[in-house]
Amino acid sequence: MIGQWRLRAAFTARLSRMYGREVPAYAELVDVSREVNEDVLRARGAAAERLGSIGRVTAERHGAIRVGTPGELRQVARVFGALGMRPVGFYDLRDTAASALPVVSTAFRPVAEDELDRNPFRVFTSMLTVSDPRFFDADLRSRLTAFLDGRELFGPELLGLADRAEAERELPEADAERFLELAVQAFELSAEPIDRDWYAALERVSAVAADIGGVRSTHINHLTPRVLDIDELYRRMTARGIEMIDTIQGPPRWEGPDVLLRQTSFRALAEPRALRAADGTVTRGALRVRFGEVEARGIALTREGRALYDRLLGLVDERAAHRPAAERGEVARAVWTEHLPPTERELAERGLGFFTYHLVPGRPRKGRPATDLGALLREGWVRAEPIVYEDFLPRSAAGIFQSNLSSTGSRDGAREGSVYDAERLSGAMEREVLDPFTLYERQRDASLVRVARELDLDSVPS
C-alpha cells in the first residue's frame, strides 16, 4: 500500500521531470539551485540547515495552477486531497498589481509538521473571478461561462482514485501508479489547437484570463525549487544567459533573520502552440504564459510581525518613490535594519516570529525558572527553533505574475468588484480554507505546553 506522503513525493518528482521536459530552462534552474545549495552547505555547515535539512530543501517544490470555476476548484481540491494536501490561506490578487489579475487563490499543502518534513509540496491555485464586472462585461462573462462549463479538466477515473486515496489515506500499488499517471497527465501542456480569436478576446482583458479560459485544459504554470541563497542563484542564472525578471520579490537581503518568503523567476518563454483561425485553419504560433520560479523561505511571522512587515513595505514604497529603481534594495535594507529585530531571539521575545521552544539539554537545574518566555530564553532555560514559513505573500505573487505579462490588460476601476473571501472559496470547494496563522500558533503553543510540563511550571510561558 502506498500512503499519502509517498504519493505526494512521487507526484512531485514526476511533475518536476515532466515540467523539465516541457520547459528546459526549468531543468537548468533546478540544476543551478542544487549547485548553490551544495555550495552554501559547504560554506556554512550546520547553520545552512537552520530552516530545514538539505534533504528537505533539495526535494522541496511549489507549483502553480489556474482553474476557471468553483466546480473545477472543487475537483482539483479532491486531487490534492488524495496527496494529503489541504487548502491554506486566501489570496486576492485582483488589486495587488497594476496589471489586470482577475483571480483569487489558495494554496494546497500538508499541514502537520511531520508531513511537511516528509515532503512539503505546495500548489498555489488560482481561480478566475468570472463574476467580477471590472474585468468581464455581461457578454464576455456569458461566453466565458459557457466555454468553461463545456470543458473537463479532470476525468472520472482520476477523481474516483483521488477520493479513495483521501478517504483511505493510501492506495494499492497498481492503483497508486494509475492515479499518478492520470494526475501528471492532467497538468501537462495540451497540444490541442487554441481558438485564436477567443484567446485574443480574453487576452485583451488579461493574459492570465486567457491562460485560464482560452484553452480547454489546465497546466502547470510554474514550478519552484527552494534555494538557500537566492541572490547567488539570480547571479548564476543571469551569467548563464537566462533572462530573469527585474527583482527578487519579498523582503530584502539584510544582516538580520530571514523572514517569510523571497521569490524570483526567469521570464516567461515563447512556447510554440497550435492556433486555430476562424476559418478552421491551424497555424503555429507562440504564447508566453509559463516560467520558472525559485524561492528562499524564512521564518514565519506572527500576526503582529506580519502587520509590521506590511507597514514596512509601505514605508519602503514611500522612501523609494523618488529614487531610481536600482536603489530600492538599499532603501529596503535600511528600513529593515531600522525597524526589525537583528536576531532570532529578539524576534521571539517581541512576539514577531513563530518558533517552537525546547529545553536546553544539560543545563544545571539551579533555582526556579521564570514563567516569562523572554526570561527563559535569556537565562538559557529554553532555546527557540524557527518555524519555516510555508505559505505565500499576495504582493509577491502578484509581482511575479505581473513581471511575466506582456501587457497590463484592462480593468474598469469605476465598477465595484464582486466579493470573494475565504468563506466563499471554502463553500466552492466544500472544504474549509485553513488560516495559516492558526496552524503556526498551534505548533508554537504545543511546544510551550511541553516546556511548561518539563519545567514543572504553573502556567504556560508567554
UniProtKB/TrEMBL annotation:
Cofactor: Fe(2+)
Pfam families the record matches: HGLS
CDD domains, per the entry: VOC_YdcJ_like
Keywords: Dioxygenase, Iron, Oxidoreductase
Superkingdom of source: Bacteria
GO molecular function: dioxygenase activity
UniProt xrefs under InterPro entries: HGLS, YdcJ_bac-like
EC number: 1.13.11.93
Enzyme class: oxidoreductase
Homology family: Belongs to the 2-oxoadipate dioxygenase/decarboxylase family.
Protein name: 2-oxoadipate dioxygenase/decarboxylase
